[in-house]
Design a protein that fits this description.
Length: 152
C-alpha cells in the first residue's frame, strides 16, 4: 500500500463533502479503535465515485450493502441502541429501514480515508490487495487471488 496515496483519516460525516468524485478505495475505522474495520471500493457511480458511495452509506440507503449490513448487525447487538429504537416505536414514531441504517452508521462513529484509482477495475484490484493486508474486517466478501505457482 506504500505506492498508494491515502487521504487523511476524517470523521465520516465531515469527509463526504470532500470525497473525490472518481473511482477508488475507502477504509473505515471506528474513532474508538485505530483498526480498520471495513474496506470497500467505488466505481464511477454515475459520475460521483467515492463521494457517491459514501453518500449512500450516510443516507442509510446502503443498509443491504456490505458495510451497511455489517454495521446494522452490530447495532442490533447493542441492547441500548435497540432500546432507543423500541422507545421510538412505542412513542408512535417508527422509522423507515433506511433511517435505521443511517442511525446505525452514526452509532458506529466512523472515520474514513480513501485512495483514488483510474477506474473501477483498478479500484477493485486495490480493494482486494488492501483486504488481504487486514485481519478482522467486517467485510464478508473476500476475493482470493492465486498465482499459478501457488497451485504447484
Amino acid at each position: 500500500m506504500d505506492e498508494i496515496e491515502w487521504s487523511e483519516w476524517r470523521p465520516f460525516g465531515e469527509a463526504i463533502a470532500d470525497a473525490p468524485r472518481v473511482p477508488g478505495v475507502y477504509m473505515f475505522r471506528q474513532v474508538s479503535s485505530p483498526s480498520v474495520v471495513y474496506v470497500g471500493s467505488a466505481g464511477e457511480r454515475r459520475g460521483d465515485g467515492l463521494r457517491g458511495r459514501l453518500r449512500v452509506y450516510a443516507s442509510g440507503k446502503g443498509l443491504a450493502s456490505g458495510l451497511g449490513e455489517a454495521v446494522f448487525d452490530r447495532a442490533l447487538a447493542d441492547a441500548e441502541w435497540v432500546r432507543a429504537r423500541l422507545g421510538e416505536i412505542e412513542a408512535g414514531n417508527p422509522r423507515r429501514a433506511k433511517e435505521w441504517g443511517r442511525l446505525a452508521i452514526e452509532w458506529a462513529g466512523f472515520e474514513v480515508c480513501w485512495a483514488t484509482t483510474a477506474d473501477k477495475k483498478s479500484a477493485e484490484a486495490l480493494e482486494d490487495r488492501v483486504i488481504a493486508q487486514h485481519d478482522g474486517l467486517w467485510n464478508r466478501r473476500r476475493t482470493i487471488v492465486l498465482k499459478l505457482d501457488d497451485l504447484m
